[in-house]
Model the fold of this input.
Amino acid sequence: MSLTLLSIVAFLLQVFTWIIIAQAILSWLIVFNVINTHNDFVRSLYTALQRITDPVYRPIRRMMPDFGGLDLSPMVVLLILIILRSYILPYLAAVIQTAG
Done:
């Protein structure tokens, strides 16, 4: 694995972080009736963001206890992404640099 590949992975993790944040904010806006899904753009954007994030959330939702209407899976995924970007990727980059 090269440093270029690690930088691409870091970029993709950052993009996915922003997708999760956008999906969470959009879902809050829909729940609090700030925006509604009768608007075609809002509905299509929300559907697209759900299709991107739901495969990642699903295994976490199965492992976590039921908190009623509170979904903590986006927070768990964000914590995992932060750990990956802050600790694991720099460690792999250091290993690659010392090995190369």
The chain has a mean pLDDT of 93. The radius of gyration is 17 Å.
